[in-house]
Amino acid sequence: MKARITITLKPGVLDPQGKAIAGALHALGFGQVGDVRQGKFIELDVAESDPKKAEAEIKRMCEQLLANTIIENYAYELEAA
Amino acid sequence: MKASVVVFPGSNCDRDAAVALEAAMGRPPAMVWHGDAELPKSDLIVLPGGFSYGDYLRSGAMAAHSPVMREVIKRAQAGTPVLGICNGFQVLTEAGLLPGVLMRNATLKFICKDVHLKVERTDTAFTRHYAKREVVRFPIAHKDGSYFADEATLDRLEGEGQVAFRYCETDGRITAAANPNGSRRNIAGVYNETRTVLGLMPHPERLADAALGGTDGIKMFLSLVETLN
Fold first, then answer.
1. Short-list B1, B146, B17, CA closest to B84
2. What whole-number distance in Å separates Cα of residue B65 and Cα of residue B101?
């Protein structure tokens, strides 16, 4: 199965990169842009056809390595390969 | 006293740490490659500065799961003192041996300069050679050094005396201007609950010899030698 994992900073955690991106977008004339938060996107293949098992494994991967849950939230989508 | 310095791919302060340790101990430490599952018997383990694994994913995240770290975590939990400097601090937080996390500097810039630090307590294995409320000068060189933990954790760290160093003015005042990277409550270094594990972003090993322009750092290594010998 294919997993698409999105990792974002938790609300309240300062995101200076997001702020810099917002500033650059404003400088380009996109004045309608408000708050910007940046994160990570990870796509990976799992050799597992049972969606429940794949989901459990993805959760473990996120908790152990892919996200630092002190500052980051994660979300994922699973899709049959 | 026997010390080990762990070398990760991308470590670049491992030799500086070894030189400072040898100056204090009178013998060189063992240099242990990250891929080794075995760690020599050590009274002190040092995780040096650098850019282990190119800072991929998050600074310290990959190194925290390298083979040697399983043994480092085991030894730390059994009470062996561990010192993490800069990237070593990041590795210790990612490995769960220290609370909090080191985030991108608030300025988004890599900062390389000397800073002043207040030694918060002088009754630990790492700091007994410092005077009470002493202000020391250590260099910093990092882009991901902004210490973050939630408010409850910060309160607990302060309450339990786990704050080791804070960025300060030359006279010891803790001010926003003295905070180079946006660290919460000016925290530059923290201990674990038993104060046997210390992580700090500034580099004591880089000012541990008069020829390098300062000796404030050597006192940390002398403290460890006195405690562990």
1. B17
2. 16
Q: How many CB pairs under 8 A join A and B?
A: 34
Tens-digit pLDDT profile for residues B111-150? 999 999 999 999 999 999 999 999 999 999 999 999 999 9
Q: Is B93 helix (H, G, I), strand (E, B) or coil?
A: helix
Please report the ipTM that was assigned to this predicted complex.
Answer: 0.88
Helices (H), B41-86: 67-77
Dihedral Cα A62, B46, B50, B95, nearest 10 deg: 10
Contact between B145 and B167 (Cβ < 8 Å): no
How does pLDDT run across B80-116, given as a tens digit for each residue? Answer: 999 999 999 999 999 999 999 999 999 999 999 999 9
**Helices B218-228 and B14-25: crossing angle, nearest 10°?**
60
Q: Which residue of A has its CA nearest to B183?
A: A14
Angstrom distance (rounded) from CA B79 to CA B81: 6
**Number of neighbouring beta carbons within 10 Å of residue B67:** 13
Rg over alpha carbons for chain A, rounded to the nearest Å, is 16
Both tokens assigned to A63:
């908790």
Distance from CA of A41 to the nearest CA of B (A): 11
A contacts of B151 (beta carbons < 8 Å):
none
Any B CB within 8 A of A66 CB = yes
Q: Of the candidates A13, A16, A40, which has its C-beta nearest B108's C-beta?
A: A16
Nearest to B58 among A13, A16, A68 (CB): A68
**Residue listed under structure tokens 């190119």:** B54
Write down the catalytic residue from B13, B34, B86, B94: B86
Global pTM exceeds 0.90: yes
